[in-house]
Design a protein that fits this description.
The protein has four helices and five strands. It is an alpha+beta fold. The chain has one domain. The strands form two sheets. The chain has a three-stranded antiparallel β-sheet. A two-stranded antiparallel ribbon has the order 3-5. It is globular and about 50 Å long. The C terminus is likely disordered.
């Protein structure tokens, strides 16, 4: 087993604010304090599990959507190719204001959202492999 000091398998090490980016806290999404902080300071992603905790409406989903967009994933949920299948204009649309400091590149990536999952479940239940997955329509 590799020594954790020598090998870091995280796909993302950090999200940094784009050089020269101006954060206008009077405009949504930066009017959400969590987003303003992310856009000003970035986010270091430590090894292990990262959990965002906050009240309803505090910006947790908006932050995660922004991070997914910065990484190159569809903020509505899905894979990198998921951007081809958007159902509405992307929100929050601020992912381009962050630079992703990448670690080991994974073979694939997927952003799973609860509302996207509920839309996909009926489709997955009609696939030939559905019988073995436990999905039902």
């Amino acid at each position: 087993m590799p020594d954790p000091e020598e090998f870091d398998a995280r796909p993302v090490l950090q999200f940094r604010p784009r050089v020269g980016a101006v954060v206008d806290e009077l405009v949504w999404t930066a009017s959400v304090p969590a987003m303003a902080q992310l856009l000003r300071e970035g986010l270091e992603v430590p090894a292990g599990l990262t959990v965002l905790v906050g009240e309803n409406g505090s910006g947790k989903s908006t932050v995660v959507e922004c991070l997914a967009e910065a990484y190159g994933l569809n903020p509505q949920g899905g894979s990198v190719q998921g951007s081809l299948f958007q159902v509405r204009p992307s929100e929050p649309g601020k992912g381009s204001e962050l630079t992703v400091v990448r670690g080991v590149k994974p073979r694939w990536s997927y952003f799973l959202r609860a509302d996207t999952m509920s839309q996909c479940t009926p489709i997955w239940s009609r696939t030939p492999a559905a019988g073995s997955s436990g999905c039902t329509s």
